[in-house]
Structures are given as structure tokens and as C-alpha cells.
Amino acid sequence: HLDTLLRGAEGVDVLTTRGPADIVHLFCPDRATLDAQGAAALDMAYVAAGRYEGFWERRLNIWDIAAGVIILREAGGMVQPSSGRDDLLETGDVLAANEVIFDSFAKVIRG
Q: What is the DSSP annotation of 25-77?
């Protein structure tokens, strides 16, 4: 049983050419809810606090994500570049989740 609240970018996901709602449906078709707030650091802090299960977004600025990365990692959450291979602070492509769902969430986001 998984009740998941995800936060994702608006528009089409550049890496997978799927929209956020499509990605959420692939990840958890019966239970997931997509939310969009607008502050990446706050979204990652919400993952750290357990309010969200996961977050992803592309092309963010370093000042939008640096604090969130620290907060999430200190809380035991996982954050990586959404591509899986670049420096997330340089690209601004972020994939973050709690440790329970991170691997399956990353698999869906990365295609």
C-alpha cells in the first residue's frame, strides 16, 4: 500500500518526453497525487519532512536547490541528478525522494 504525494515540474519532462501526470501515473497509477508549489528548496524540505514522497524538476538554478539538497541529505533522504550522471548543482536537474521509494521513482523518471 503506497499513498504517494509527488512534486514535479510543469510541462513536458525533457528526458522522457512525458508530462508530469503521465510520470505520476506510471509510478503509482491508483494512489499518487501530483502537487506543484514553485519553490524547489521548499519542495525538497517537504520530502525531508515526509510531506512529499518525491520531487523532480529540470533546469533549476543553484540558488533554488542548494539549501534543499543539504536539508534533504541531512534528514536521510536521497537526491541525485535526474539524468543519473551529471552534477545536479551544475545542470539543475534534480531527483529527490525518501529512501523507500527512491530507486523505483528514479527508474520511472529516468525512463
A: HHH-TTT-EEE--S-HHHHHHHHHHTS-SEEEESS--HHHHHHHHHHHHHTT-
Nearest to 5 by CA among 98, 108, 107: 98
Question: Which regions in the chain score pLDDT beneath 50?
Answer: 1-4, 10-18, 31-35
pLDDT in the model for residue 82: 86
Residue 22 grid cell: 503521465
CA distance linking residue 19 with residue 46, whole number of Å: 22
pTM of the model: 0.70
Per-residue buried b or exposed e for 48-85, using 16+ beta carbons within 10 Å of the residue's own CB = beeebbbbbbbebeeebbbebbebbeeeebbbbbbeee
Query: At which residue does the C-alpha cell 520511472 appear?
Result: 108
For 30, residues 6+ apart whose C-beta sits below 8 A from its C-beta are: none
Do 62 and 41 touch, CB atoms closer than 8 A?
A: no
